[in-house]
Inverse folding.
C-alpha cells in the first residue's frame, strides 16, 4: 500500500482536531490483514506526511509475540520514537498485564504497550482492573450501555479512568443509533470521563456505504468521525440532545466550515481552537480504524488535507 501524500494547505483547526486521532486496527475486520501486512502499513504511515494523524497500533495481547516476529526489523530503526501499542486484554487480566509488563521490560526502546483496552460490564470488573493496572499503563474500559451504564461511568470517574464505545461493525445492527452514542458522550462528559471510539468510523461524514470490502457486502448507514468529534465538542458546551442529533446526522460537507481559528456548523454554531483542544483532551481521545488510508483519502476529497 502507498502511504498518503499531502495535497492541500492545512487549516489550524483541522490540525488540532485530528492530531493522533486514528489508532490503526488493520488486524481487525473488515480489513483483517495479516500481522505482516498490518505492521508494514503502520511503518509506512509513520513515515508519511500524515503521520501526525496516526495514533497507536492496536493488537490483542495474544499476538504480541507474532507482532515482534513481523515488526522486528521495522521497530529497530535507530533514532526513531518507539512504536506505541494499544493492547486488547484477554479473558485473564492478570495474564494480560503480566505479558505487557514483560514485553515492556524487554522492548520499550523499540515498542511500548502503554494503553490497555478492556471490556468492563460490571463495577467489580472496573475496580479489579484498576487494582491490577500498572502506573505506566492507561486503560480504556468498554462499558455496557444498559441500565447500569451511569453507575459504570461514575465508577470510572471515581477512579480517574477512561471509557470506550463501539460505534459500528460489519453488520447494520452493529451500529448504535445516534441517540445512544449521544447518551454515552453526554454521560461521560458530565462525569469528566474521556473516551475513545472503535469500529465503523471509516469516513469523515455520516454516509450509506458497504460495511465491508467484500464484493457482495451488505450496505448500511455509517457514523462519521467528524460528526462524532463535533458532537462531542458541542456536548461539552452544553448543547441539548436534539441539536446534537442533527450534528451526528449531518451528511453534507458544507455543513462544517473549518478555519485556522476554529470550526463552525451550518454557520450558526462555533467551536474555537480552545474548544477543540478541550474536546480532544477531555472528550474523544481517538478512534480505532482498520484503515488509515481511507479516512485520509476522504479528508483529501473534502479539501481538508
Amino acid at each position: 500500500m502507498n502511504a498518503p501524500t499531502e495535497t492541500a494547505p492545512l487549516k489550524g483547526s483541522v490540525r488540532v482536531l485530528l492530531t493522533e486521532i486514528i489508532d490503526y486496527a488493520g488486524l481487525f475486520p473488515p480489513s483483517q490483514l495479516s500481522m505482516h501486512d498490518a505492521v508494514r502499513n503502520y511503518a509506512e504511515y509513520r513515515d508519511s506526511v500524515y503521520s501526525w494523524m496516526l495514533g497507536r497500533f492496536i493488537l490483542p495481547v495474544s499476538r504480541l509475540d507474532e507482532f515482534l516476529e513481523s515488526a522486528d526489523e521495522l521497530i529497530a530503526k535507530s533514532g526513531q520514537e518507539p512504536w506505541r501499542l494499544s493492547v486488547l486484554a484477554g479473558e485473564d487480566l492478570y495474564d494480560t498485564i503480566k505479558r505487557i509488563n514483560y514485553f515492556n521490560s524487554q522492548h520499550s526502546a523499540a515498542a511500548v504497550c502503554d494503553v490497555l483496552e478492556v471490556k468492563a460490564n460490571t463495577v467489580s470488573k472496573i475496580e479489579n482492573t484498576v487494582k491490577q493496572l500498572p502506573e505506566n499503563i492507561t486503560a480504556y474500559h468498554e462499558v455496557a450501555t444498559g441500565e447500569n451504564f451511569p453507575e459504570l461511568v461514575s465508577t470510572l470517574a471515581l477512579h480517574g479512568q477512561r471509557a470506550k464505545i463501539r460505534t459500528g461493525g460489519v453488520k447494520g445492527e452493529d451500529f448504535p443509533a445516534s441517540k445512544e452514542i449521544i447518551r454515552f458522550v453526554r454521560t461521560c462528559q458530565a462525569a469528566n470521563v474521556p473516551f475513545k471510539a472503535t469500529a465503523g468510523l471509516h469516513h469523515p461524514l455520516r454516509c450509506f456505504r458497504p460495511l465491508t470490502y467484500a464484493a457482495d457486502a451488505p450496505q448500511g448507514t455509517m457514523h462519521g468521525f467528524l460528526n462524532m468529534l463535533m458532537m462531542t465538542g458541542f456536548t461539552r458546551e452544553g448543547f441539548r440532545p436534539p441539536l446534537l442529533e442533527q450534528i451526528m446526522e449531518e451528511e453534507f460537507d458544507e455543513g462544517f466550515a473549518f478555519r485556522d481559528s476554529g470550526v463552525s456548523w451550518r454557520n450558526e454554531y462555533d467551536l474555537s481552537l480552545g474548544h477543540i483542544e478541550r474536546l480532544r483532551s477531555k472528550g474523544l481521545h481517538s478512534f480505532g480504524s482498520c484503515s488509515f488510508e481511507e479516512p485520509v483519502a476522504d479528508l483529501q476529497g473534502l479539501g481538508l488535507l
